Amino acid sequence: MKALKIQHWGILPVILLSGCLSSNSSTTTTASASTRISYAGSTDPASLTAANGTVILGGAYQGGQTGNAFGSAAGLSGGGTAPQQPRTLLLSEALAQAIQRADFSQLPSPNTAAVNDVSKQVTGNCGGQMAYTGTEDDTSREFRATFTFTDYCQDATTFSGTATVTGQTDPTLDFEHLSLTFDALTIRSKGDAFTANGYEIITPHTGSFDVKMNMLLEDNASKLVYKFDQLLFVVEKSSGYIDLGITSGRYFDPNYGFVDLSTPTFLHIFDGDYWASSGQLKATGFNSSASFTALSNTTYQLDVDTTGDGISDSTTTGLWADL
Description:
Elements: H1 53-62, H2 87-100, E1 115-123, E2 129-137, E3 142-154, E4 157-169, E5 175-189, E6 192-205, E7 208-219, E8 225-238, E9 241-253, E10 257-270, E11 278-285, E12 288-294, E13 299-305, E14 314-319
């Protein structure tokens, strides 16, 4: 029998869930009610203005407001140097890479049952443990496993908590799809610390990934919770950069309410950069809209339509690092 292999999971953004992509998915984790997070902020559509446009769009890009997080390391919730990616990208990539380290090759001898138990512990390259247990079906190529992270540190990102993973491989043993569910999963990376509840379905294609996601992100310092609902996007990965396109989805800021997100032009992000170098992120609220246009990896242009007539009422420029 062939063993499952896990590969081709590089950057899997997630700008970021439930069985039908609703915000509070049931999970198989054992997190206590006191550690689970929930969204208690505004659920009204946001009225976008020149004053709040950078806050709302900046939060949508970063995965919630982090307090001038990436212009000054002192603004981060955990201290230290600035993270290399927005929270949603960091969470997805690090989880995918952790699952990529799972070894489903420890199978019984031939001529036994097609469904096999798998269980193992893996040590992170900077400390901690990742333990997983589950099953793999050698006939259908389906697998299911629960991953428990105990201060699991890999490449300067540390996970604590539990995630349930299901998936299926194609005949060449590459993934056809991958589903991730997690509840009260805490992530620490280069000074930032946040907790996530979420669910995402990732479908890979040649050179790209389609993603469906719902997610709650709590900043561990401010305790503010931000929400992404029914987010649909595609990531196209090439040598030295990725292009991120958002088809649809909502971002909820607890103070201002929700906006609908899209990318009229894909966001172009070079490897090693935090901010996009080109492309446009648009948010539509209550009779209003605003858009970030990336002028470079250091500067942006903000256009705001406060009346909903499709005409910009204000245009400003600024530094990404000041958000």
